[in-house]
Amino acid sequence: MERDTFSIRAQNVTKTYKKKPQNEIILANDNLSLNVAQGEIFGLLGPNGAGKTTLLLQLLGLLVPDSGDIQIEGINVVKSPDQVKKITGYMPQSRVAMKNLEVYRALTITGQLRGMSKRDATIQTKEMIERLDLGEHRTQYLDRLSGGMLRAVSLGMALMGHPRILILDEPTNELDPVRRRMIWSTIQQINATDGITFLLVTHNVLEAEQVVEQVAIVDHGRVIASGSPEELKRSIKHDMRIDIVVKAEEVERQGISIIEETLQSISSFVLTKPRHYSLFTEKTALGNIVNHLVLECSSFIDDFRVVPPSLEDVYIHHTNKQIEAHV
Ligand SMILES: Nc1ncnc2c1ncn2[C@@H]1O[C@H](COP(=O)(O)OP(=O)(O)OP(=O)(O)O)[C@@H](O)[C@H]1O
User: Fold this and answer.
1) FRET label pair with 89: which of 171, 218, 244, 297, CA 20 to 30 Å apart?
2) What SUPFAM superfamilies does the database record attribute to this sequence (predicted)?
3) Cα 96 to ligand 1 centroid, rounded to whole Å
4) From atom 24 of ligand 1, which residue's Cα is the shortest distance away?
5) What 3-state DSSP class applies to 310?
């Protein structure tokens, strides 16, 4: 049999739910296709309710698609869910099993349940505790941990038994910045040293951009854009962003509406937070706009910079467009 170079292949997956009490049909995945290459870190982005978790549950064999085909390392998930479970690790969005166990015991038992000997599971538990900086908490019960700590333990549990594919649902949700960075670097390290394939859902797009190699943006159950972060950034027409900060004292003196009118007369801007504006433009129009800003706005501009758009800008660009199309 020809070796499948894709770890994950989902083709034309459709999944509906019936919502009680009136059995309203919810189309959670709508003819969705996705390929994840072996050893890749793949990011799944999309707004709340886009259908990301539904897809993950089907990849893991925990939900059955209405139609479509899912292969994990060449194994048909619907036909052989148990084989798939042996090679995949899963970090769910919130639920963590074994809440009445201590951290080290939860890790070791998870390893044993995945077929490891007690000795090997104990060795990997020590490694996980060190890698995830859980030393201080090793004898704490899971139900006494903060939400953030529980996420870290949950990642450790997903890694027990050395799965070949790891599926993570919002791995950095609820974590403080230091621990978030640690999780991202652990993902990168494990991917580099063990060649594990990662498919992860995240809302931390700016952070994910540094780590993921391929991305799919999902909305309304469909993939609306996919590619490497660089490809996606190149694909949007407005390929430059100007960020502007307005002086607080000028807002007091002139009034915000005069300032915004002046900005709008040059180009349309969006307010990102008080006194901060962003404008998206094509490179060809950039010089003209910067000239206008310098000539007409220097009295009230505190700072401005020109930057290429981030993956987050691409995400907003695509999902906004999709929202408009559905209104
Ligand atoms: N068990 C269920 N019964 C009925 N509807 C469901 C069920 N699970 C999910 N849904 C609906 O299916 C759609 C997709 O949900 P899903 O949880 O897959 O989205 P998501 O992209 O993971 O969202 P989030 O980012 O908020 O976690 C939503 O409209 C959701 O309300």
Assistant:
1) 218
2) P-loop containing nucleoside triphosphate hydrolases
3) 19
4) 48
5) coil
